Amino acid sequence: MGEREPLCVRVDETVQEQFRNFTLETKGRIHGEMGRLVERAMKEYMNRDRSARIEEQLEQMNSRQQKMLELMNNSASLSSHDEAAHSHSTDVGAFTDLEPQVRKGIEKTLASLPEGEVDHSDIERAVHSAGRTDPRTVKKYRKVLESRGVLLPHPLKADEDMWIHGLRQFAVLCEASDDVTVGRLNFLLGDLEKAGVISEEDYRDALPDDFVEGRALKIDQITFNSS
């Protein structure tokens, strides 16, 4: 502990007297102990305030994440006749160029893979449910799904081995989340277009009409900035 410095403050006379009595009762003397109790009280107050702020920030983060998950779940429940929403997810016709055995494994994997936010364990379980348990096969199937735009990089957690299953869910999350900036979206779409995974048109088509209506889209800002 560093050198202690004197501190002069004004407090209510009654409070001061009560605190002096408390110090005397608990410590047996006033001199030196009163200052130590004040110092301890100040530290506890700051620690509690800091903890409260951290808890509040965590609650806000959890609330935002919950809203994003609700948006993705709602978008996943929309009618399956929307071809644009499914052209990069449930349409197994996109895998006709694969070997029959691989295509069959991919189809079974997709049947078990939840839409929306997924991590490595979700993908692994889905591949295992298709009867493929070799880690190399899990990695191979994941790469196939990434290359076909079925698994898209999580715009907020890409460095945590997290993906978004479904272009519609990806687009809704990017547009709805305040944490996904226009610059971040521009970077993501740029990489995906260069890799031939999805295009700007695919992204736009995936957004539900009722979601787009009356909303200022980030994708429009990218188009404006690049023109």
Could you characterize the architecture of this molecule?
A three-stranded antiparallel beta sheet has the order 1-3-2. It folds into two domains: 13-59; 86-226, no CATH class. With 227 residues, it is mostly helical. The protein has helices at 13-27, 33-76, 83-86, 100-112, 120-129, 135-147, 167-176, 182-194, 200-206, 209-212, 218-226, and strands spanning 116-119, 151-153, 162-165. 63% of the residues lie in helices and 5% in strands. It is elongated and about 85 Å long.
Strand content: under 5%
Overall strand count: 3
Oligomeric state? single chain
Q: How many distinct folded domains? A: 2
Give me the strand/helix succession: HHHHEHHEEHHHHH
What is the end-to-end distance?
60 Å
Biggest sheet descriptor: 3 strands, antiparallel
Q: Uncertain regions: pLDDT < 50 for 5+ in a row?
A: 78-90
Class by alpha and beta content: mainly alpha
- Spatial order of the strands forming the largest sheet: 1-3-2
In helices, the fraction of residues equals 55-70%
Number of discrete helical segments: 11
General form? elongated
How much is the radius of gyration in Å? 28 Å
Report the mean per-residue pLDDT as an integer: 82
Brief summary:
The protein has 227 residues and is mainly alpha-helical.
Summary keywords:
single chain; 227 residues; mainly alpha; 11 helices; 3 strands; 63% helix; elongated
